[in-house]
Every structure is written in C-alpha cells, then in structure tokens.
Amino acid sequence: MKKFLLLIFPYGFLFSHNFWIDYSNPFPEKGEKIEIYIKGGHSFPESEVAVKERFIEKFFVITPSGKEISLDFHKKDKLISAEFFPQEEGTYTVYFIFQKPDGERFYFAKSYFYFKNKTEIKNLNHELEIVIENFNFEKEKKINLKFLLNKREVKKTLEYMNKKEHGFIRYVPGKPAVYKVQEGINLILCEEGGKSCTLTFYGR
Amino acid sequence: MHPYFLWALILISHGIEYEFFEKAKGIRIYYTDGTPMSFANYKIYSPDEKIFAEGLTDKKGRILFMPDEKGKWRIEVDDGMGHGFIESFNIEKPGESVITHKGSNPLYLRFITGISLIVGFTGIFFYIIARKKYAHT
C-alpha cells in the first residue's frame, strides 16, 4: 500500500513541464566544441519546450579549477542552446536557474560532464539541490543521492528517468537514496514548495 | 513674450493626468494544482480582432482590463514554460468605470519644472562656450 501511494502522489507534479541540462556530446575530445542545452517537456530525453529566455537568470559552467563562465545562449527550435569549448581536464558542473520577474527563483538544474579525466564534483549550495555521493560516471554503479533544502538534508521522494526505466526513490536524512547509473543520460528530479530541481549526468 | 516663457508653456503640454477607477473586468489564471500562472504573457483581442491589451499577468496570475464594447473577445496566454491557452468570451455590458480619484502634476509645479529645465540647459550651454574660450586663450 505504501509503495502504491508512493507511486500515486508524485504524479501531481508530472503534469508540470520538466527542464534539464543535456549535451550534444557529453564526453568531448580535445579541442572539440560541445553544445549545452536546456531542454524541457514531458518526453524526456526529447525536448518539447524552449523556455522563454526572460526566465533564465543564470546559465553557467564551472570548470574543474572552479572558474565560473556565463554561457551565451539562444533559442534553437524546441530548446535553448549554448556553445562551449572545454579546455581544462576534469569534471565540469553546468547549472541554470530560472527566475520570475518579481525575483522569485523557481527552477534549479545541475549537470556534470568530464573532459579527459574525472575530478571531484562540486555542490552548488542552491536553495534546492540534489547531491550525489560516490559518483564517477560509471554505468551499473550504485550511487547515493541526497536532497538538500537551503543546505539542510530533508526527506524527499526523488523521481528518476533513464533509457531503461522511470521510477521513484525515497530519500530520508541519514539513509541516502541508492540509484544505479544507467548508460546514457540519467535524470533525477524533485519538487519542493512550488520550486523544482533537476540533476543530469551521463553514464558510460 | 520672452522666449523662456514660450518654452515653459511648450513643456507644460507634456504633463500627466491620471484617474483611479473601479469595476474592471478580471481574469485569474492558475495551474491545476492551484499555483497562480504568474508573470505569463497575455494578449486580449477586441471583437474586431485588434490587440486591445497585452502584458504580463500579475504575481497572483490576474489580469484586469476595461472592455469598451459588446461582443466576442479573445484572450491568449502563454507562460513561457510550455503552458498556455486561447479562450473566447462574451462581453454583454462593457465596463462602466467609476472614477474614484483624479490627479495630475499641479500647474504651478509644471511651470516651475519648465523654467528650471530652460535655465539648466542654458547654463550648460554657456558653460561649454566658456570652457572653449578658456581653452583657446
């Protein structure tokens, strides 16, 4: 009964569109340009909706050495696109924040990709954030997920989508939610108080 | 009449007046979970298919406007996040405004503003002339 209810309740927010970060090539080679996307809709991994640009407060890349680079983006059909040339070796963090005209931030998305070598991943300390432990992009590996609300661990039902399946895992402080990385893009998402956050990464 | 007063009169013609009124037509838009569709783009078309009003819904997902003729009106809303709708609605009785308060910039203030602007611009003009003369000598 508990599992049944766990499946039913989160469907309330399935009717709102999801937004996530994706790439033209999540494992770039030296000198290779990648396109970083903000995708949206209900048909993950395909994008149905290009969010209106006026909502995008921030769209940044953080390099392995910690430098923050603002991405120059534009609408491209049904998504938002930006070009980036990774120079440093290591793991990059990409994020966007959506904001309403009155200043209220309502969407926080984060993603990781690496160039040549994998280095330590970084958290962003956003209002809402899904945090990963034991992560190295390897498919079939189990990783621990946590949900932070204003930097505090809070229990939350996390939704996940990948090439293989679509499901839910429960996070409770002190007992991380275990997720098995799948090949291809992995999306983890949740909502809290009318705000949403997503996390994407590729497994290989 | 001295030129300064002529310019001041011209500046007075660009004053502002305003009226507060009641009894506007209102629409409130929200998502199925009750969250208001705040700051969404909207366009309202009058019966002759011309844009009558456009803008953003307010923080609570509301639009207020004063239709001025009977007939079939249309509203289009787009939240910029993939949700929106188009809806037609009939207006039987165009809104009858009840003016509760009027105001404007007082005439004497506008006159003083006009004179101040003239004096200010004149001062800047002569300052530039003086600087050029000083540089030359």
**Content-based structural category of chain B:** alpha+beta
Work out the radius of gyration of chain B. Answer: 25 Å
Mean pLDDT across every amino acid position of chain B? 82
Helix proportion range of chain A:
under 10%
Biggest beta-sheet profile of chain A? 8 strands, mixed
Class by helix and strand content of chain A?
mainly beta
> What's the SSE pattern of chain B?
HEEEEEEEEH
Describe the structure.
Chain A has an eight-stranded mixed β-sheet, with no helix packed on it. With 204 residues, chain A is mostly beta strands. In chain A, strand 7 (90-99) and strand 8 (105-115) form a beta hairpin. Chain A has one helix spanning 2-8, and strands spanning 18-23, 34-41, 56-62, 68-70, 73-76, 79-84, 90-99, 105-115, 128-133, 142-149, 152-153, 156-161, 166-171, 177-180, 184-192, 195-203. The N and C termini of chain A lie far apart (36 Å). Mean pLDDT of chain A is 90; it is low at 2-15. Chain B is an alpha+beta fold. In chain B, 29% of the residues lie in helices and 35% in strands. A four-stranded antiparallel β-sheet of chain B has the order 4-3-6-7, with no helix packed on it. Chain B has a two-stranded antiparallel sheet with strand order 1-8. In chain B, strands 2-5 form a two-stranded antiparallel sheet. The longest helix of chain B has 30 residues, at 107-136. Chain B is elongated, with a radius of gyration of 25 Å. In chain B, a hairpin with a 5-residue loop joins strand 6 (71-78) and strand 7 (84-91). Chain B has helices at 3-12, 107-136; strands spanning 17-22, 25-28, 41-45, 51-56, 62-65, 71-78, 84-91, 98-104. The A-B interface holds A 12-13, 15-17, 19, 40-41, 48-49, 51-52, 54-55, 100-102, 194 and B 31-33, 35, 38-39, 41, 56, 59, 80-83.
